[in-house]
């Protein structure tokens, strides 16, 4: 937790800006990675970026009845892809202009290596199914490397927010956190989610550290934070198919492994909508 506070403190506060409201006629731009784009969720509208027209930005845009809507989220995106093309998807920041009213940003998971972390922890679980081989692996140097990766990602996210402010001085900028992937009580569900028993709480806490960093960086860069973790507790990848909003490593609903399904995207849309329509009172 302390490292995240240092990350936030290192991000220079941006100049205060006004912002568009949450009503109809807004010009909305969505930036982000695969948790935003919605891979494999019908209907896929961009094969290069695995983007769905039922992802949370599309749902929010429909509720807002936007004047314009640009969703440039892309599976596999890192903060670098805000400035760099990703296949046929141009630099995501190119979609943000001076007349943009609302910009949502959900980024950072790939910067810390979401995919490789899941693969590594699943592979290591066979060595010590009831222990914490993944935590020991990332802490072998005496310092938890995932905590370090989160701290190093903070300034990258801050730079993205500063760039959005520069391009859209009057926009409301919402930093969207990541949903609850694993049981919030620290319990496990191997073998359906193949992590060692004591690595479930470790990975849960890593997700919470990532979200804390995003919350603090948003605060220090005059953006609003959208909590999607709280609203998705109880619907993680360990739950039965009818109850889960995050698919396990072998999905049973159309979605990428360890990603939100259509219900998960709808839940994140609800959290964004709640933030837009209930003002800017808290960060």
Q: Summarize this, please?
A:
This protein has ten helices and seven strands.
Please explain how this structure is put together.
The protein has helices at residues 2-10, 34-37, 56-64, 109-112, 114-124, 133-138, 145-167, 199-220, 229-232, 262-277; strands spanning 27-32, 44-46, 51-52, 68-71, 102-106, 172-176, 224-226. By secondary structure, it is of the alpha/beta class. The strands form two sheets. The chain has a five-stranded parallel sheet with strand order 4-1-5-6-7, with helices on both faces. Helix 7 (145-167) runs parallel beside helix 8. The longest helix is centred in the middle third of the chain and has 23 residues, at 145-167. It is globular and about 55 Å long.
Set down the secondary structure blueprint.
Layout: H1 2-10, E1 27-32, H2 34-37, E2 44-46, E3 51-52, H3 56-64, E4 68-71, E5 102-106, H4 109-112, H5 114-124, H6 133-138, H7 145-167, E6 172-176, H8 199-220, E7 224-226, H9 229-232, H10 262-277
Parallel strand pairs: 1-4, 1-5, 5-6, 6-7
Antiparallel strand pairs: 2-3
Helix pairs in contact: 1-7, 1-8, 3-10, 7-8
């Amino acid at each position: 937790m302390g490292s995240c506070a240092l990350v936030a403190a290192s991000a220079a506060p941006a100049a205060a800006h006004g912002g568009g409201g949450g009503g109809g006629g807004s010009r909305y731009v969505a930036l982000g990675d695969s948790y935003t784009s919605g891979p494999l969720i019908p209907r896929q509208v961009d094969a290069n970026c695995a983007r769905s027209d039922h992802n949370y930005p599309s749902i929010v845009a429909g509720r807002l009845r936007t004047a314009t809507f640009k969703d440039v989220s892309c599976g596999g995106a890192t903060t670098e892809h805000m400035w760099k093309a990703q296949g046929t998807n141009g630099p995501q920041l190119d979609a943000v202009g001076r007349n943009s009213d609302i910009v949502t940003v959900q980024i950072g998971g790939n910067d810390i290596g979401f995919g490789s972390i899941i693969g590594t922890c699943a592979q290591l679980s066979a060595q010590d199914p009831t222990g914490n081989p993944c935590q020991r692996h990332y802490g072998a140097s005496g310092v938890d490397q995932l905590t370090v990766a989160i701290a190093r990602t903070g300034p990258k996210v801050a730079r993205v927010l500063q760039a959005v402010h520069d391009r859209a001085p009057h926009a409301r900028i919402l930093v969207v956190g990541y949903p609850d992937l694993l049981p919030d009580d620290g319990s496990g569900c191997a073998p359906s989610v193949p992590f060692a028993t004591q690595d479930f709480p470790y990975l849960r806490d890593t997700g919470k550290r990532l979200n804390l960093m995003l919350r603090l960086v948003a605060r220090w860069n005059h953006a609003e934070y959208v909590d999607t973790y709280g609203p998705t507790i109880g619907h993680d990848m360990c739950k039965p198919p009818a109850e889960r909003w995050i698919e396990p490593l072998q999905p049973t609903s159309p979605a990428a492994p360890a990603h939100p399904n259509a219900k998960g995207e709808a839940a994140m849309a609800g959290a964004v909508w709640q933030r837009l329509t209930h003002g800017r009172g808290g960060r």
